[in-house]
Design the sequence.
């Protein structure tokens, strides 16, 4: 009987389980049709399983076994349904898509702004990794239906494009030459010293472009397609010079084989088209010279305009030290060396700001300052006049040596002009620096005055040198006229007596080395500029090694055994001479622009010079120099350098343009030989290679009246733009002043409101204190009256019980409360802060009567 009952119960439980399973499957199908979630269905089914398992546990072991079988069946059915749902498309409701999209956008914002969070690097990395994993996992599920794959593909391509842009930006930053070196120098020596190296790098880029133009359009075509060496007199060393053509002193002076090479103007042939490409060599030479000057003007003016736009105007000194204190550090730094550089940079910027603040608050004696500044300018003018006269005297003396023959003189007489100019450029800036100590200017203004004076020195020396060169050119032209007559006589003597007058015979073959030739003043000018560039470079490097390196070695190793402190006394470590080095660059670049037309090798020489100077001077400034005693901000120094460069560019092009337009070219050397003027190559090209109407249009366009009117229109446009920019700048300054005044007014209003609130709060506290004191006094008065009305009661146990043998003690004295009580402690519940606790009845403690 009990077995039959158990079997019946098991059958009933099986039927119930099967019916429940069928109901659950129907519910699943309905939920699928209604776009329900598969995960939630499985959770519900699992919950139901757990409940049923709990019920079966009450029924016994047999029920547990059946429950296990049932759970296995349900697990199999849920796995089958999960597999089928994975095969089908997952469909999300609109609310879930919106929430998921919002979560993805939040993660993206977190990734974008994670760098600015003041967290530890470990926390940043873990957060970044989690955010990337979340975005990668759920961003593709935002698509719907058939567009899901396309959406995932689009998201993938967007990520790849963003990664490419980031990698390309990093690659472009890494490709900037010497960026880390300049940053390191800026961190230790300030932005003023770093501005020089930035300017040097910029000059290096310009000279690379100039070198590419001259090398690709002039030197390479002549070397590959022109006539070879020895084919004509202008490309052959004369026999009288061949014995010493390879000697080092001759090559150092750029004579011998270097003179008759593609390095100089005289080597190039005047043949209109050379090689199988029919390359127009004279036209290319002329247009390359004009193009280099035009490109230089364009780059310099564009850089000045961009720097002016970046500078803006107004006062940006509000809360300078607070900004530097709380926002200077970069929390992404992970390299100790980078951290040291950043620390040094922040320290240097604080020094710069302190100097600025001291200069703004400085008071001075205006009359004494004016007298000292006038005296300093007078001394500077005397130095400039003396240097100009010395250069003119040396150049005239060198012309005298050239007429008498340089073979009888030594090395100094041959290179006297170059050495004197280099020595003046080396010692005069030091003298100007000593004189500038009298003026007591701000360091930045003192640097600008120093630059202006050295600029005037270099410019005066350069123009004195050019005037002397023009005198020498006139002497060469006179010599050329004599050479023409002698060549006519030589040709007549060559043909005289060898060929009859009416006979026809092949021309005589003459060795090009035996043909007499003219002086070729263009090659002479190119040689002078190359020599001047080389001597200036050598002088700069020797000064760097002797004045900085050997001086630093002397101070470093002899300081321990010397009579005084060499580091803080004389001679001490050298400071980096910003003004001298900047003006040396500008002066050298002016010589390149002036002489590149006659010596195509000059841009290549300058590129090598700048490349070596960057490494050598970076090493010297980090190893041999110390920071300036008064560190100051650059604050537009680069723009001041470029402004001086623009002036030297304009003044350098004037002599070149004068020689091209006014002086006739040499008759037997250079690409323009045989022409009346060098620019005649333009008219020749128009007549031979262009139609007639184009030549007429060009002739009308080159009319002086039209050119002058165009120049006048350009001047008016420049004046208008300058006036407009000045008005915009003034308006910008006024707006900034208004904003500053508005900010100050708002500060004053906030301060007044805060003061008023403080006064109101103090009044409220005082009134509350008075009210508390009055309530206490009233309470004490009422207590005294009650004591007087009921003298014999002891209900409150205020006094000890009186008895035989005991004296009655008087009540304790009451003291008026004249100040608010202290803060409420943790053991005083029920009383708010600021509300005094009224004392209740106490039992005064007397002597114990029971002993």
Sequence:
């Amino acid at each position: 009987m009990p077995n039959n009952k158990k079997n019946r119960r098991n059958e009933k439980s099986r039927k119930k389980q099967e019916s429940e399973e069928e109901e659950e499957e129907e519910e699943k199908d309905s939920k699928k049709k209604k776009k329900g979630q598969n995960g939630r269905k499985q959770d519900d089914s699992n919950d139901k399983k757990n409940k049923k398992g709990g019920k079966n546990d009450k029924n016994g072991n047999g029920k547990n076994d059946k429950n296990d079988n049932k759970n296995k069946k349900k697990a199999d059915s849920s796995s089958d349904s999960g597999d089928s749902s994975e095969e089908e498309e997952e469909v999300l409701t609109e609310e879930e898509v919106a929430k998921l999209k919002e979560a993805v956008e939040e993660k993206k914002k977190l990734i974008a702004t994670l760098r600015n969070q003041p967290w530890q690097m470990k926390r940043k990395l873990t957060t970044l990794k989690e955010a990337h994993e979340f975005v990668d996992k759920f961003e593709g599920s935002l698509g719907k239906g058939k567009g899901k794959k396309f959406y995932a593909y689009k998201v993938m391509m967007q990520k790849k494009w963003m990664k490419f842009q980031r990698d390309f930006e990093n690659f472009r930053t890494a490709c900037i030459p010497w960026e880390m070196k300049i940053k390191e120098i800026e961190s230790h020596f300030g932005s003023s010293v770093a501005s020089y190296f930035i300017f040097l790098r910029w000059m290096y880029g310009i000279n690379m472009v100039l070198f590419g133009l001259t090398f690709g359009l002039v030197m390479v075509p002549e070397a590959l397609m022109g006539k070879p060496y020895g084919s004509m007199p202008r490309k052959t060393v004369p026999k009288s010079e061949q014995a010493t053509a390879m000697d080092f002193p001759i090559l150092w002076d750029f004579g011998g084989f270097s003179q008759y090479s593609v390095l100089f103007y005289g080597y190039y042939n005047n043949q209109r088209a050379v090689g199988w490409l029919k390359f127009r060599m004279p036209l290319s030479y002329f247009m390359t010279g004009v193009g280099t000057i035009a490109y230089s003007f364009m780059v310099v003016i564009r850089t000045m305009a961009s720097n002016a736009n970046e500078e803006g105007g107004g006062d940006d000194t509000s809360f300078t030290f607070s900004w530097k204190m709380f926002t200077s550090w970069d929390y992404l730094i992970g390299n100790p060396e980078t951290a040291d550089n950043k620390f040094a940079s922040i320290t240097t910027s604080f020094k710069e700001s302190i100097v600025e603040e001291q200069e703004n608050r400085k008071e001075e004696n205006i009359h004494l300052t004016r007298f000292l500044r006038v005296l300093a300018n007078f001394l500077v003018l005397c130095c400039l006049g003396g240097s100009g006269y010395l250069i003119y005297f040396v150049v005239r003396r060198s012309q005298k040596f050239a007429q008498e023959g340089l073979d009888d003189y030594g090395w100094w007489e041959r290179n006297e002009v170059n050495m004197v100019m280099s020595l003046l450029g080396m010692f005069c800036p030091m003298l100007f620096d000593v004189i500038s100590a009298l003026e007591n200017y701000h360091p930045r203004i003192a640097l600008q005055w120093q630059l202006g004076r050295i600029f005037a020195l270099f410019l005066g020396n350069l123009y004195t040198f050019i005037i002397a060169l023009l005198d020498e050119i006139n002497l060469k032209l006179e010599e050329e006229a004599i050479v023409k007559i002698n060549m006519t006589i030589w040709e007549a003597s060559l043909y005289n007596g060898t060929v009859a007058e009416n006979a026809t015979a092949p021309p005589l073959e003459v060795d090009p080395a035996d043909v007499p030739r003219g002086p070729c003043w263009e090659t002479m000018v190119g040689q002078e500029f190359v020599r001047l560039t080389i001597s200036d470079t050598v002088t700069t490097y020797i000064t760097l090694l002797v004045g900085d390196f050997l001086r630093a070695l002397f101070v470093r190793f002899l300081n321990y055994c010397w009579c005084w402190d060499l580091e803080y006394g004389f001679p001490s470590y050298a400071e980096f001479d910003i003004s001298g080095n900047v003006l040396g660059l500008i002066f050298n670049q002016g010589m390149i622009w002036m002489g590149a037309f006659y010596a195509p090798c000059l841009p290549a020489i300058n590129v090598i010079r700048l490349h070596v100077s960057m490494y050598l001077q970076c090493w010297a400034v980090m190893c041999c120099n110390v920071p300036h005693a008064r560190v100051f901000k650059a604050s537009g120094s680069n723009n001041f350098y470029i402004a001086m460069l623009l002036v030297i560019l304009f003044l350098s092009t004037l002599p070149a343009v004068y020689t091209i337009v006014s002086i006739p070219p040499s008759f037997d050397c250079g690409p323009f030989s045989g022409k009346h003027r060098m620019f005649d190559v333009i008219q020749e090209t128009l007549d031979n290679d262009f139609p007639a109407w184009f030549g007429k249009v060009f002739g009308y366009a080159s009319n002086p009246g039209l050119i002058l009117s165009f120049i006048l229109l350009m001047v008016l446009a420049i004046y208008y733009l300058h006036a407009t920019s000045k008005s915009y700048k003034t308006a910008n300054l006024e707006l900034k002043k208004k904003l500053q005044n508005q900010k100050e007014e708002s500060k004053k209003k906030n301060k007044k409101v805060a003061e008023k609130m403080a006064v109101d709060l103090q009044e409220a506290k005082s009134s509350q204190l008075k009210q508390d004191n009055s309530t206490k006094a009233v309470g004490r008065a009422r207590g005294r009256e009650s004591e007087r009305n009921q003298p014999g009661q002891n209900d409150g146990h205020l006094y000890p019980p009186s008895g035989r043998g005991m004296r009655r003690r008087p009540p304790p004295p009451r003291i008026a409360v004249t100040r608010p009580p202290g803060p409420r402690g943790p053991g005083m519940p029920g009383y708010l802060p600021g509300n005094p606790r009224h004392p209740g009845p106490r039992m005064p403690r007397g002597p114990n009567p029971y002993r």
